[in-house]
Amino acid sequence: MIELLTELLSYAFVVRALIVGVLVSLCAALLGVSLVLKRYSMIGDGLSHVGFGALALAMALNLSPLEVAIPVVAVAAFVLLRISENSRIKGDAAIALISSSSLAIGVIIISYTSGMNADTSNYMFGSILAMSESDVLLSVGVSVVVILLYVLFYNKIFAVTFDESFTRATGTNAGRYNTLIALLTALTIVVGMRMMGALLISSLIIFPALTSMRLFKTFKQVVISSAILSVCCFVAGIILSFIFSFPTGASVVVINLLMFVIFSAIGLVKKAIA
Amino acid sequence: MKLISCEGVTIGYDGQRAVNNVSFDLEQGDYLCVVGENGSGKSTLVKGLLGLIKPQEGSITFDGLAPNEIGYLPQQTVIQRDFPASVSEVVISGCLNRRGLLPFYSRLEKERAAAKMEQLNITDIRKKSYRDLSGGQQQRVLLARALCATEKLLLLDEPVAGLDPMMTAELYQLVAELNQSQGITVLMVSHDLDSAIQYGNKILHMKTATAFFGSTADYLKTEMCQQMMGARKND
């Protein structure tokens, strides 16, 4: 086991992937608790697809992928949030439309410029080789900002998640914090999607929160458990992918699924005993 | 002393007037019940009072009451039913308006939350999860949270919806106590005409416009009230 780990850590790309992955998992798990509870899970999914379109565009224009994707996805976060809040439009249907449209446009751009190749597959399903050194720096910066803002606004995020009308009524600008949550989610998704893949990154947001809710009963416990679970599943996923040469993103998702099943089972047993 | 005065308030959505030219005053210590059928504009009026929707016409003025000093008890949302949060986490979130931009709660807020939980007799369940509580206990928790936010005015929106008769009676009793012994002004939106008459000292009957506003004693003399009470007796 130790031999395996030393071997793993001797590769610079693995170390880079681990640094970024651990930070992104942490951010995704924190934000995921609010998104899942507010029934905004689809926003994460929508944003990752928009991110895919933006990456394809950046490639075609020969620009730096993150520098294009971050603003595009941030704008999309605003739009998707407005759509979800506006009950007159069917929010989930509108998000599905935006997701698939961005994916379609992205695929067309890619096939027109470089043709469907290994790159396309990497964007969709992630690649551990995706992170360059400058990407790592940017990712670390973004993740640190996300975590700091989350901790600073923790109490407000709780209040807005639990009861938006009460929070508004007592003078907190709930819309501002919804926007904050959506923006932080956008940043997290853009940073994480090239490793996890556009189609799989949203699982990083949804799984840890849902899994933790099977067992834990207070908000703080759920947040802490999600954070720990997310990081552990990511590291386990990387190891799994290294041993069996599985794709990284898919391995992380499968480990998350496994934990979800285990937590659900324990939850059911606990309920049966009580 | 007037806490809130509404003058000629009109609020509408989508070109329809949900609240049409409604005027009333809320004095300190009042227990005002807003009654009316579904679609009579009660909930819209509440949103107007909370500042969630701006009135198109008329004015809502607060006196000696900051707009964030309304202890609001909203209708329960779907989100809350399976929400993982402990009772103390929910109650202390009522102190948020005291913090401004400061990120964390101080000892003062923790003590305040503890005092409110004690007052509403939920201290022994403070570590329980909100989603595991009975409907009546959940309302107590939300009431404690509202009291953390303010000691001046409680605004309750259909507080007994979904409660069984015992819990309903208990909640009415509790609110009446807060009104009488603590002098907290109460504004309650309700379907339940009987308890509105039993507990409220003033009634606002809405039919989009004001159908009646005045003391409960005067309301009992109106034809409208007698009709509604009579209609039910014949059921």
Helices and strands, with pairings:
The complex is a heterodimer of chains A (274) and B (235).
Chain A: H1 2-9, H2 12-37, H3 41-60, H4 65-85, H5 91-113, H6 118-125, H7 133-152, H8 154-162, H9 164-169, H10 174-196, H11 201-215, H12 219-244, H13 248-273
Helix pairs in contact in A: 2-7, 2-10, 2-11, 2-12, 3-4, 3-5, 3-10, 3-11, 4-5, 4-10, 6-10, 7-10, 11-12, 11-13, 12-13
Chain B: E1 2-13, E2 16-27, E3 31-35, H1 42-50, E4 57-62, E5 70-73, H2 78-81, H3 87-92, H4 96-99, H5 107-119, H6 135-149, E6 153-157, H7 165-181, E7 185-189, H8 193-199, E8 202-207, E9 209-215, H9 216-221, H10 223-233
Parallel strand pairs in B: 3-7, 3-8, 5-6, 6-7
Antiparallel strand pairs in B: 1-2, 1-4, 8-9
Helix pairs in contact in B: 5-6, 6-7
Question: Can you put this structure into words, describing what you see?
Answer:
The complex is a heterodimer of chains A (274) and B (235). Chain A has 274 residues and is mostly helical. Chain A has one domain (2-268): ABC transporter involved in vitamin B12 uptake, BtuC (Orthogonal Bundle), CATH 1.10.3470. Chain A has 13 helices and no strands. Chain A has helices spanning 2-9, 12-37, 41-60, 65-85, 91-113, 118-125, 133-152, 154-162, 164-169, 174-196, 201-215, 219-244, 248-273. The longest helix of chain A is centred in the first third of the chain and has 26 residues, at 12-37. The radius of gyration of chain A is 19 Å and the shape is globular. The relative contact order of chain A is 0.17. The model of chain A has no long low-confidence stretch (mean pLDDT 87). Chain B is of the alpha/beta class. Chain B folds into two domains: 1-39 and 49-69 and 152-223, Rossmann fold (3-Layer(aba) Sandwich), CATH 3.40.50; 83-149, no CATH class. Chain B contains ten helices and nine strands. Chain B has helices spanning 42-50, 78-81, 87-92, 96-99, 107-119, 135-149, 165-181, 193-199, 216-221, 223-233; strands spanning 2-13, 16-27, 31-35, 57-62, 70-73, 153-157, 185-189, 202-207, 209-215. In chain B, the strands form two sheets. In chain B, strands 5-6-7-3-8-9 form a six-stranded mixed beta sheet, sandwiched between helices. Chain B has a three-stranded antiparallel beta sheet with strand order 2-1-4, with helices on one face. The radius of gyration of chain B is 18 Å and the shape is globular. The relative contact order of chain B is 0.18.
